[in-house]
Amino acid sequence: MIETQNLTKEFDDFLAVDRVTLSVGAGEVLALLGPNGAGKTTTVRMMTSILAPTHGTARIAGYDVVKDAEKVRASVGVLTEQHGLYERMKALEYLDFFGEIYHIAKPVRQAHARELLERFGLTEAMNRRVGDYSKGMKQKLALVRALLHQPPVLLLDEPTSAMDPQSAKQVRDAIIDLQHESRTFLITTHNLTEAQTLANRIAIIRHGRIIAQGTMTELAQQMGAEQRVELRVNGPLNGLSKDIGDMVTICDSGEDWLQYSAPDPSAINPALMRRLIGLGVEVVSLTLMSSSLEEIYLRIMEEDEAVRPMKSL
Amino acid sequence: MTTLSTTSHASEIDSLLLDSEKRKHEPVPSKSIHLTLSNALIITRREVRDSFRDWRIIAPIIILTFFFPFLAQWVASGFSNFLRGYGAELVGERTIPFLLMIVGFFPISISLVIALETFVGEKERRSLEPLLSTPLTNTELYIGKTLSAMIPPLVASFGGMMVYLLSLLTGQLQWRPQAMLVVQIFLLTIAQALVMVTGAVVVSSQATSTRAANLLASFIIIPMTLLINAESILMFLAPDVISPYGVGSLWAVLAGMFVVAVMFLRIGNTIFNREELLGRNLDSMNISGTLRKIGRYIRAVDDDGTPARNLKEWYTRAIPYSLRKYKTAAFVTLAVSLIAFIAGFGLGFAPQWRIVLPQGTLSPKSMDIIRDVLTPKIQEQAFWFILTNNLRVLLAATILAFFSFGVMALVMTPTVYVVLGYIFSQLILSGSDLGVYLVALIPHGVIELPTVLLGTAIAFRLGAVVTRPPQGETVGHAVVVAFGDTIKLTVGVIIPCLILAALVEVYVTFPLMLR
User: Fold this and answer.
1) Do B38 and B145 share a domain, yes or no?
2) For a 10 Å CB count at each end of chain B, is N or C smaller?
3) Is the pLDDT of residue B280 over 70?
4) How far apart are alpha carbons B186 and B179 in whole angstroms?
5) Which of A2, A86, A138 to mutate to test binding with chain B, by most B CBs within 10 Å of its CB?
6) What is the β-pairing status of strands A153-157 and A184-188?
7) pTM for the full predicted model
8) Residue B483: domain span
């Protein structure tokens, strides 16, 4: 659904996107992460055939972004960084305008608009001027606009920013629903928890270059991150950290729990259990914890910074 | 099937909306003019509705449509009565059509504001990007927005003029206008709106804020105001609608404005593209950066701007690379020059343009005088005169071409060919020895004529490149590259060839003629 090969964009002497190669299949969600100015928006704009690539190719829903620009734009739903709504229009009127652009028959576009507005809890406000909407409502309306023509590919820039937790959940649920229908998503976000929840795969972009991509596990492996294990016991720890400190690295502890890391927990855990039983410790649970996306992201960024420091402005 | 389609409309929606697989096999829709216009009108309808919801636009339109015409009528009556008291009714009568034009012009001046608002305002509010993400083509967006900027002010303008005309026809003055003049004024109003809106689009695409756009808009409003002044003078002096020196000449103004509007439309359609609109983020001018880029393209041997490593490579690769870009411009220049020569030649056969030339060549006595005068000092002065004259003409053509989309390049230098054609015809008619004429022309002409043609083509392309930048290039980049090419070819080809031509003319042609 989304295939890019060495996608590059230069503005005069500024290299905004540098040889980006991505592949996102049907029903997949790719989270594109990166600091401000990393090239996320420019990449999305090239995928929408708004900007022409300087070098490289991109195919969206099977269409080339240069040769079939209009078809590409008909096949994508875009949520831009700024919602960009016409504030003097009413929500229904606004959606009707965009539906007409996509040549959707009037009764159909009206029905679909009402349905989507209901799905996102905007029914009561559908005859109000958009200018009177809250930030979150505007964001949801912009998302409805992106979904209106049922595009197979959705490019969403910060889909839940400015939303209250309930609205953000509505949007996340909608993304999961649509993912089950084999729709393809590319989401750019700074919300790493959301990215971890929604995305099948993650790509990290810096200085216009993809510096890492893969599933969470693949990224964790790429970074060589040690896995964490949480141990919960029945009663206080009573110096347990010292008793097992020679076997594992204690990362954190509480009254009746501790977290440790080990290069290979599956190898060390049986021996550790034997020692705990020997010490008379009653083990309540032993849980393998995965690294958080935030940890992985920060480590990847730090490593890249060490290799290619950011130029001072 | 969408899980969002939970209502009874779901099947209907799914049957009408194509999924991605179906889309792949969908036949390519041919963008007929009808479809383009239909898509453009979707934009127009929205924008016009939006304009009529904005009190900042609607208030002046109402005032200028319903209040200002009565004010103008009152002024016209008062002015006429006042002048009648001094026996100058004619002055009063001639002022009435001018006021009709002003009544029409004031509302259309709002089109400039709407155009700047719909283009730059939308860019500033970031509402343009969702629109650019739709399947609409650049042309559809451009036509849609241009029409939307023109329609409300034109409606107000025509409304105001009708109110003014009715008040004149039925009021105290009982004015009976010349029908042709009224038609001209209505057409002029349309042309003025078209020029202002299309000009505003060009301005808007180069600005990222309404503030910057408003500053740049003075480049449109000032010439337009001067034009209105000129039109009013023509109306005032006009004895009748037929006279070519009076109102009749308004047709020429009208034609000129439509040419400018077409030029602006062409530029606007070229630069109203997604890349230009979203790629431009700053209004600030980077002079040193621009000069660096021009310098880069002066040395460039390819499209990537790879610099020539030495003078030999510059002549063998960089110059031919740039010359190849001038095929079309050279062809156009050659065609115009040939037409100019033929026109001059034909003109010479018209009895009223014929001059009587003496038969034969110069007398031996005259030849001796010239021989005596043609000292090395005079020859040196002649060389500098010929060289600087040629350079001056080409420089003037280049400067004027830059500000006239290349048109002036095709006016200035081809004028010389009209003169050449005319002289040639007179020589034939007088039975003079054409051999002398050819000797006086060919030795240096074989260098000078192609060089001047090339120089004209360079000037023409420099001005015309904004109307049609090469595929995939922005207007700014195309102009920078054209500047680089202009300097490169001027320094590398034009100046050396003109020096050579001047040397040949002074030291070869002159002595040959005297033999």
Assistant:
1) yes
2) C
3) no
4) 11
5) A86
6) parallel
7) 0.71
8) 287-514
